[in-house]
Amino acid sequence: MKEIAVFSGQASGGFAAEICGHLGVPLLPSRLQRFANDCLEVQLLENCRERDVFIVQPLVKPVQENLMELLMMIDAARGASAGRITAVMPHYSYARSDKKDAPRISIGGKLVADLLTTAGASRVLTMTLHAPQVQAFFGVPVDQLHALRELAAHFQDLDLSNTIVVSPDLGNAKAATAFSRLLGTPVAAGAKERFENDRVQITSIIGDVRDKDIVVLDDEIANGSTVLELLDHLAKMGARKARVVCTHGIFSNGAVERIAERDDVIEVLCTDTVPIGADKSHPKLKVISVANAFAEAIRRIHTGESVSELFQGEGINV
Known about the structure:
- The protein is an alpha/beta fold.
- The chain is about 30% helix and about 25% strand.
- The protein is built from 8 helices and 14 strands.
- The strands form 3 sheets. It has a 7-stranded mixed sheet with strand order 10-9-8-11-12-13-14.
- Strand 5, helix 3 (about 110-120) and strand 6 form a beta-alpha-beta unit.
- The two termini are about 25 Å apart.
- The mean pLDDT is about 95.
């Protein structure tokens, strides 16, 4: 794999290094400089000419800063005559902005997709988009991975005979159904309404959860308001202990503490697509690595093999 070149933005150094370890290639150096007027300058410190370049950078807090660095790294690789440039975004936060649901608002998911392709990205590799249709915003190929297999492996030694997977809303029900198949459990879903100031209400649960242990599956947890509302509703319906599972653990405003302090929550499980800060040491939080999944996808993209074959039979489109 001598023609491959992997660079990392500031938000993803450790994750990118783990990917490179699985690939058996070095993580190539780059330099980020901030001028006195607060403008950024990016320089890739290794040759890119005619190479297959992968730039790893999740769009996480500070999102705009990390996005600008990614755009400049892509532009630098294009200016250095890279053969192909793949933007590897473990978390694409602007996927939440996928529709015009109020007057005079920007559809950020489409705008950022245009920026990435204009900068020179020839391909995008990401994981578990909040809105899968965002793939259509890009004018270049998009490979969307998911972490259901890695998350399910955490449960392989547990007795799940009295367990049900619950999706917080109907939009995530397809992923929850695929996850329940991997675990061999039934599935249920909540009906959710969202109001101003990020307030949510679960109006009903479709499925029988009484006297069942619960695995809550969501694509991402930010403030945790949806999960907490769901857990309250499940408790009222007679559910027992719960495990909370997500791909992207954003965990803003003390979300881990607020979820984990509940007596009915056994653990909170997420992947490392988003760098986990001080919450990483919480005794109820478990972080699963998905660097190997990204490494295998990068290898397949580089060699021209199918990425979708990684998920055949799991009921998830990539």
